[in-house]
Amino acid sequence: MGKDVIIALDFPGAEETLRFLDQFQGGRKPFVKIGMELYYSAGPEIVRRIRERGHRIFLDLKLHDIPNTVKKAAAVIRDIGADIINVHAAGGSAMMKAAVEGATRADGSRPIVIAVTQLTSTDQETLEKELLIGRPIDEVVIAYAENARRAGLDGIVCSPREAAKVHEACGAGFLTVTPGIRFPEGERGDQKRVTSPAEAAKAGSDYIVVGRPITAAADPTAAYERCIREFLGEEA
Ligand code: C5P
Predict the structure, then answer these.
(1) Which residues line ligand 1 (CB under 6 A)?
(2) Quick one: pLDDT at residue 67?
(3) Less crowded by CB within 10 Å, the N or C end of the chain?
(4) Which fold has domain 4-232?
(5) Is residue 3 within 8 Å of 206, Cβ to Cβ?
């Protein structure tokens, strides 16, 4: 799978989601991300329905449990039809390996499995005072990325600003899936450190995850096409 733009479908239910996707019926079918809000409200059925419409899916459920439970959950998610699934690297190497095992089909094929390193909502103070990790957060992110690579995962979720360092530490083929994307003139919302699609391309991001700049745009298909143009350098 090459580089792509992934639209974050952060909608509360199936109806709003499908209405939003109706706008993309004619042209390129966007790669989409289904997170906890939509999945917990609309269940596996919404994944199947979106898949039937021809979209590829990143099912962002951030598994984090004992290895045996994660292995079984990864197999279920694989069968629901996700192209990318994810786990928390904080669950440890055995848990990450179990996720890859669980996601692997009898013929050896499997969805892409990536890890969340440290949540962007965790700052240095929380890391030290609550999680009792006394190391600089950048170091922790890279160390978790290396753990993920050694456990056989395909990449991590990170900021485009970290993509080059992650590629340096884990190899160019290790995928960087990067949220925090905004058009230069757009609203930042609650995202603090933002990057434009063109900057993310320069930084070496493999997939950009874009939510509100597309979902809340006056013309979502035009905003999506702009992301494709600026990130991939091609027409949608
Ligand atoms: O609307 P916006 O473009 O900010 O959406 C970004 C998406 O990426 C959301 O679904 C958000 O949960 C997700 N995300 C993020 N930062 C992370 C991990 C995931 O913004 N570190």
Answers:
(1) 8, 10, 35, 119-120, 157, 179-181, 189, 191, 209-213
(2) 98
(3) N
(4) TIM Barrel (3.20.20)
(5) yes
